[in-house]
Write a structure and sequence with these properties.
Largest sheet: 7 strands, mixed
Oligomer: single chain
Family: Belongs to the aspartate-semialdehyde dehydrogenase family.
Number of domains: 2
CATH superfamily of the largest domain: Dihydrodipicolinate Reductase, domain 2
Organism: Clostridium acetobutylicum (strain ATCC 824 / DSM 792 / JCM 1419 / IAM 19013 / LMG 5710 / NBRC 13948 / NRRL B-527 / VKM B-1787 / 2291 / W)
Number of helices: 11
Shape: globular
Structural class: alpha/beta
CATH topology of the largest domain: Dihydrodipicolinate Reductase, domain 2
Pfam family, one: Semialdhyde_dhC
GO molecular function: aspartate-semialdehyde dehydrogenase activity; NAD binding; NADP binding; protein dimerization activity
Distance between the termini: 9 Å
Keywords: NADP, Oxidoreductase
CATH architecture of the largest domain: 2-Layer Sandwich
């Protein structure tokens, strides 16, 4: 299929929506044709709706400035203008759940950046390099929804992408327990330093809801399809702490892991460096050429130096060494707003496009 698909951005005025707008500028598969947000932004030009609230350090794309923002609840009208939507709305979870399902029932596929449907049993939670086979559940989801084309696919929490790719590369060694402490950038809360002055010279030791996501979502990503649902993996056991730090972008994860079949350090490094997935095999536009970059330098990875590796879509791993309580420990890093949010969703949509789910 050579014709570009028409895309709607739900929640297009927020931080993640702004990322979507920049990533989709001149995209080879997709063309933004609709921006929707809450009723208070509806009817305004996009440039006016985000005036004083453009949060990125790159300019607003010219193509989007004169879009008239639509009311996110005007599904009948929006469905005439789009082939699928990205959802990045900032609302109560139960409300998001209803909105996404309503779009799907209007035969509009939804690629969601939200957590609302991550534990709906027939909604796949996709990291494209790790579990693309979970897309096979979509026909079962369509049966439940009563749709021919509409469905929902979610991307996982941004913080787990700092360590889950590395563990995924090592699953053959059967990890049994994981301890992870994430040090999460302020953009993960949708804020800049100007909007979050209390973080300056500070660390906040609690991010509501993050620890449960960090412990549960990897197990769904590593799970399997059984009938009409995705069954989460029962192991490894994961425990976590999630901390907000004074960094603009980039989530760091200090990870400790034990295995049933302990590999050598050399085996781990080889697996990390050579790990590839379907996005690399299909040469998808947003896919990093090198999914996981391993650093020998003890002082890497660092958010300031390494978050933009592979245009923000690569994962960085360093400080791999044996541990006294676990088998190994390492530090992982991902760009939370790119790989972890909008970029990960765009990559998922590219995979859906190539696999024929969007048309």
């Amino acid at each position: 299929m050579n014709k570009k698909l028409r895309v709607g951005l739900l929640g297009g005025t927020g931080l993640v929506g702004q990322r979507f707008a920049t990533l989709l500028d001149n995209h080879p598969y997709f063309e933004v044709t609709c921006i929707a947000a809450s009723p208070r932004s509806a009817g305004q030009k996009y440039s006016d709706a985000v005036k004083g609230r453009w949060k990125l350090d790159i300019p607003m794309p010219e193509y989007i400035k004169d879009f008239i923002v639509k009311d996110i609840y005007d599904i009948d009208e929006i469905s005439k203008e789009v082939d699928f939507v990205f959802c990045a709305v900032n609302m109560d979870k139960s409300e998001i759940k209803k909105i996404e399902e309503n779009y799907a029932k209007h035969e509009i596929p939804v690629v969601s950046n939200n957590s609302a449907h991550r534990f709906t049993e027939d909604v796949p939670v996709i990291i494209p390099e790790i579990n693309p086979e979970h897309l096979d559940i979509i026909p079962k989801q369509k049966e439940r929804l009563g749709t021919k084309k509409g469905f929902i696919v979610a991307k996982p929490n941004c913080s787990i992408q700092s360590y889950v790719p590395a563990i995924s590369a090592l699953l053959e060694f059967k990890p049994t327990k994981i301890l992870v402490c994430t040090y999460q950038a302020i953009s993960g809360s949708g804020k800049t330093f100007e909007q979050f002055p209390e973080i300056v010279d500070n660390t906040i030791p609690y991010i509501p809801g993050e620890e449960q996501k960090s412990e549960d979502e990897p197990l769904k990503v590593w799970g399997h399809i059984e009938g009409n649902k995705i069954v989460s993996k029962k192991d490894p056991l994961i425990t976590s702490q999630c901390i907000r730090v004074a960094v603009s972008d980039g989530h760091l994860a200090a990870t400790f892991v034990s295995f049933e079949n302990k590999p050598t350090k050399e085996q781990i490094v080889e697996k990390l460096k050579n790990y590839k997935g379907k996005p690399q095999l299909l040469n998808l536009p947003t896919a990093p050429e090198q999914f996981i970059t391993y650093f020998e330098d003890e002082f890497r990875p660092q958010p300031k130096l390494d978050r933009n590796i592979e245009k923000g879509m690569g994962i960085s791993i360093g400080r791999l060494r044996e541990d006294t309580l676990f088998d190994y420990k390492f530090v992982g890093l991902s760009h939370n707003a790119l790989r972890g949010a909008a970029g990960g969703a765009v990559l998922t949509a590219e995979l859906l496009y190539k696999e024929g789910y969007l048309y």
